[in-house]
Amino acid sequence: MGSERVEMRKRQMQVHQEAAASVLQARHRMGNTPTNASNACCFCWCCCCSCSCLTVRSEDETIQRSTFERRTEGTNNCEESPKPTLEDARSWPMSFEKVMKSAAGRGCFRQFLRTEFSEENMMFWFACEELKKETNKTVVEEKVRQIYEDFISILSPKEVSLDSRVREVIHRNMLEPTSHTFNDAQQQIYTLMQRDSYPRYMNSTAYTDLLKSLEEPPPEP
């Protein structure tokens, strides 16, 4: 099993390297060549290769990255999300949409995903929602780059599971990053959570224990 995973990673690495090369060629044809295009490896800002240039980051970029990560990690953190009402929690089995439209629902569901080691799915979905709200082109491009590095790159420990079709769409969208660059990927992850994790959460002790805690009368003063 271990050797199969290594081979799979090698194949994925090759696919991403080829995709990066095709993006570079497309930018050459469009006359939109990056300033560092003389070094094809350094064009690979999306972290799809394991070259040494990935370790060469300026101090400014490192600071920007750490600031962005603190912001995205802290946003909508389950422990900081509002406590659900009993009525709210009882509505979640009706549909996955009920969970995702509730701030408390997203927080509790994210905590469950954390126990299943798939919290990155909710983090990616939420990062895409925040991206859609952004209108500043420079900020959009930075957020797109950051989301790619955090959740799409095969080198990231928080990589989400996407099929090859969606990954190809993402690489094409990277030519002109917009606030909707990851729409297809976000929908695929939403569907994955809806079909896979959501039913398990509804049947979990985490959800039943939550209902019990909400049904208990508050302690008398």
UniProtKB/TrEMBL annotation:
It comes from the Eukaryota. Residues 95-211 form the RGS domain. Coiled coil: none annotated. InterPro entries: RGS (IPR016137), RGS_sf (IPR036305), RGS_subdomain_2 (IPR044926). This is RGS domain-containing protein. It comes from Champsocephalus esox. The lineage of its organism: Eukaryota, Metazoa, Chordata, Craniata, Vertebrata.
